[in-house]
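Weekly puzzle thread! Below is a chain. First person to post its structure in token form gets bragging rights.
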Amino acid sequence: MRERPANFIDYENFRLTKKYKEKYTGSCPANITKILFLDIDGVLQPGWSQKRFDHIKNGDLDKLYPDLFAQTGIDYSRYDIYDVAAVYYDWHETSKIQLRRILDETNAKIVVSSAWRTKNLYKMKILFNIFNFNDYYIDNTIKTSSKEYDKLRKLPRYKNISGDRSIQILEYLHKYDHINMYVAVDDLDLSDCLGDHFVYTGNVGYLNEKHADKCIEILTNPKYKR
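Winning reply:
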């Protein structure tokens, strides 16, 4: 049995007990008032970056797993090889740096609005842990395939809203109305519905310094308060 590092957090066993299940059902506590709604593809992971496939083909993950275990205490060989490889090899270096800068300078937390949110929370927590973003991440927006979402789309407040992702974000804000500052970062254009609370990355395909500067402004300037 390999020795766990001193800073090991047992995310893998969150699913095994009632206590951990309750902790990771996902929510936005009342003391968290700033949220970054995060897309991943086209924000952290450029569409053109496909390095994971070569690394998988070359067997590089077999060498990576022990290093990740030593770093995190998590056996990543238990998880989807393509997810692990995508995070480790394809998340853009600049985007990781700028995301951390946004979060550190604003004290915002991450709510995933990406298609990646279809993974459950503990798996996303484990993936974020590869680059130490796990403590920033608190929740996902609602899944589009759920019966609850089908009912939401028929509500009068969403009658003139086009686009599932905008509805998912707006519903999260409706549910947690104590959130007073937020920004959504996406390579899909959500500006029609989210207005000044939106930063578009589709022009370059990943989060860069200029995008981060705008996010920080939106999350710190009082004029953007709800």
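Puzzle host: Confirmed. Bonus trivia for everyone else. Confidence is low (pLDDT under 50) at residues 14-24.
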